[in-house]
């Protein structure tokens, strides 16, 4: 495997294969590498994306955000996109799909061959394998504050992630998606890595892929290395010590809300921790930005001249010419510094190219502090189901 060209997407690196039980065939450890997906001149409707974040965490979408999302006037070109999105290649039934691995949700939902060709344009679609079983009477649906929605039916089918196959995975096949999903060609669906308690299949919640395979891994964990402007990776069942420096600091994970929750312990604007305080947060690969308590966000933007909390844009903005400080966060005894360059999300809109949107935003509407990609790109993060616990170390 290792001799293959790096062009092989999401290549599996298998170590220590084990005997295969009836419904599982896989190595006890494997790595899934992300692959860049070129999506052209990617733009983001900032209020719509914020509305989706709010609804993902069951928060109320304020009227001004919903209105701005629907009018779609604030369309940014993210500075970190390089016109690319990073997904993982997963075999679902008979199809190979580019899925977004999301530790903040617990559904595996995909564009499917039940969609009309106009709904699935730009996407690869799931076709059930010959051994797929339709779960009769089972359904799922999601809808967001910006008006976007998707719904469908559920199969038990074969899913292969990085060489690991589970033959009876709940696959949520979309039978209808709204125009917002149609135009977002950045992936063909999501693979949730949150706790199975928040899976949305009715009438009975289904297990995530990770829950289904974890007992057969060398250790019941996965570790995430997301990168700034580059493809990252997910290690399942083992830790790769060449991906981090120093040691890993573990803290208890709180799974009570179905997310990978933990307690953060301090912060500082700049490269060191200046304030010790504790607050609850979650680690979410499926959220782009870093959402922190108001006090911390205000302390940060107090050091950015010209910054303001813009209600029309739906968050903190600043002149693109401003010099940003770094931001340091503490978890347990570990400190993580986010470089200033990660904290500029890009120009606010094509008509306002002098203002930029901040990578760190206020969490008060969400009611939950979210350590999203802006933070995760600095760390090697261990999601360990034993405990459960989370581990953090600075990326190598
Ligand atoms: C991207 O935007 C530039 C500048 O507006 C334009 O010239 C180019 O054709 C666009 N590329 C794509 C793939 O849309
Ligand atoms: C560990 O990561 C390094 C750097 O990405 C990679 O070259 C190496 O193959 C990985 N080792 C294992 C055992 O996966």
Automatic annotation (TrEMBL):
Pfam families: Asp (PF00026). One of its GO terms (cellular component) is extracellular region. It comes from the Eukaryota. The active site is at residues 102, 284. The keyword DNA damage does not apply. It catalyses: Hydrolysis of proteins with broad specificity similar to that of pepsin A, preferring hydrophobic residues at P1 and P1', but also cleaving 20-Gly-|-Glu-21 in the B chain of insulin. Clots milk, and activates trypsinogen. It is an enzyme of class 3 (hydrolase). It is found in: Secreted. Its EC number is 3.4.23.20. Monomer. Secreted aspartic endopeptidase that allows assimilation of proteinaceous substrates. The scissile peptide bond is attacked by a nucleophilic water molecule activated by two aspartic residues in the active site. Shows a broad primary substrate specificity. Favors hydrophobic residues at the P1 and P1' positions, but can also activate trypsinogen and hydrolyze the B chain of insulin between positions 'Gly-20' and 'Glu-21'. PANTHER family: ASPERGILLOPEPSIN-1-RELATED (PTHR47966:SF2), BETA-SITE APP-CLEAVING ENZYME, ISOFORM A-RELATED (PTHR47966). Belongs to the peptidase A1 family. This is penicillopepsin. It comes from Penicillium cataractarum.
């Amino acid at each position: 495997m290792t001799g293959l060209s790096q062009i092989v997407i999401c290549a599996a690196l298998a170590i220590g294969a084990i005997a295969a039980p009836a419904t599982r065939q896989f190595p006890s450890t494997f790595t899934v590498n992300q692959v860049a997906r070129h999506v052209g001149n990617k733009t983001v409707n900032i209020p719509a994306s914020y509305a989706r974040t709010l609804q993902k965490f069951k928060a109320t979408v304020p009227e001004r955000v919903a209105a701005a999302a629907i009018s779609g006037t604030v369309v940014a070109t993210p500075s970190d996109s390089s016109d690319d999105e990073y997904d993982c290649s997963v075999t679902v039934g008979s199809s190979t799909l580019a899925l977004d691995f999301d530790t903040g949700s617990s559904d595996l939902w995909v564009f499917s061959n039940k969609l009309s060709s106009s709904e699935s344009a730009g996407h690869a679609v799931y076709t059930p394998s010959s051994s797929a079983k339709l779960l009769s009477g089972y359904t799922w649906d999601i809808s967001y504050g910006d008006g976007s929605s998707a719904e469908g039916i559920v199969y038990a089918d074969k899913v292969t992630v990085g060489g690991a196959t589970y033959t009876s995975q709940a696959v949520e096949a979309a039978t209808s998606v709204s125009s917002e999903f149609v135009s977002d060609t950045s992936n063909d669906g999501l693979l949730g890595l949150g706790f199975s308690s928040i899976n949305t299949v009715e009438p009975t919640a289904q297990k995530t892929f990770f829950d289904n395979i974890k007992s057969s891994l060398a250790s019941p964990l996965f570790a995430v290395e997301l990168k700034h402007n580059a493809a990252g990776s997910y290690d399942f069942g083992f830790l790769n010590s060449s991906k981090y420096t120093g040691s890993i600091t573990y803290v208890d994970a709180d799974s009570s809300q179905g997310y990978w929750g933990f307690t953060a312990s301090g912060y500082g604007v700049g490269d060191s921790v200046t304030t010790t305080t504790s607050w609850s947060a979650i680690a979410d690969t499926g959220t782009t930005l870093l959402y922190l308590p108001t006090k911390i966000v205000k302390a940060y933007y107090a050091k950015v001249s010209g910054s303001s909390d813009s209600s029309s844009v739906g968050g903190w903005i600043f002149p693109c010419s401003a010099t940003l400080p770094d931001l340091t966060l503490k978890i347990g005894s570990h400190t993580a510094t986010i470089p200033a360059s990660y904290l500029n999300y890009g120009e606010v809109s094509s008509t306002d190219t002098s203002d930029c949107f901040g990578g760190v935003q206020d969490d008060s509407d969400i009611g939950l502090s979210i350590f999203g990609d802006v933070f995760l790109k600095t760390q090697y993060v261990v999601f360990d189901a034993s405990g459960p616990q989370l581990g953090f170390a600075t990326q190598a």
